[in-house]
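Session log. Operator J.P. requested a structure for one protein chain; no other inputs attached. Running the standard single-chain path with token output.
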Amino acid sequence: MPELPEVETVRDGIERHVVGASVTRVVVLHPRPVRRDPRGPEGFAAALVGRRIDGARRRGKYLWLPLDNGDALLGHLGMSGQLLVQPKDAEPERHLRVRLVLDGAADDRELRFVDQRMFGGLSVSAGGAELPPEIAHIARDPLDPEFDDDAFVARLRRRASGVKRQLLDQGLISGVGNIYADEALWRARLHGERPGDRLTRAQGHELLGHAREVMTEALGQGGTSFDALYVNVNGESGYFDRSLHAYGRADEPCDRCGTPIRRTPFMNRSSYFCPTCQPVPRKRRR
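Structure written below.
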């Protein structure tokens, strides 16, 4: 699933290529990607036609495009969603789901939503230009200038649940997914099952700093691409996968100590860690 650096890369591309353009036509090729819009496919399209795109914003893994009437086009990429800026006469992608034909965009382009697995989606958020109410419950992310480091660390240390589980809690901190959680924990030398209430304040701040650091580095390389499902608005892949120290490196030597990286099941996914640098925490005594 695309995480904060990947979504921010897409947002930046939309801001550069689409903002200022008006929507002249909307074609919904499959109803599932607009299933969260109560208007249905026809109402979704009607709510966008004639509207000008005034910005491109993000909170965590959600994108929204403020419109000139105070509404917003809200989007989530899900597991395999792509937002591409394409010339109007470009061949349709195999899994093309929604087309927004634009007037005023560079070279008469259109914004396309492509999604193979269709876990992502688009909807129009009424009055959501500033912040769509549908995502108001999602916490700020570490790259947000208004993110409160001290408040995050305090909440992290009050909970007995493992620190990786907390990093993935979008109500506590947004934008951090499985890849960057594992990378931040490797850099902090912490096992993901370490209970939050067994961290010192300094360890909490160090972990947050590494999460921010690793996502900033990934953003500089266009995000992480393991396959063709994640691309930016121009269809290009990111290259941060070449810089990963833990995630996806099962049985490879740790870059710090040489111990083989271990893979374990975690919440229907996988965790990757170094058993030497990130020792499994001892169980609490009853």
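Operator note: The longest helix spans residues 201-220.
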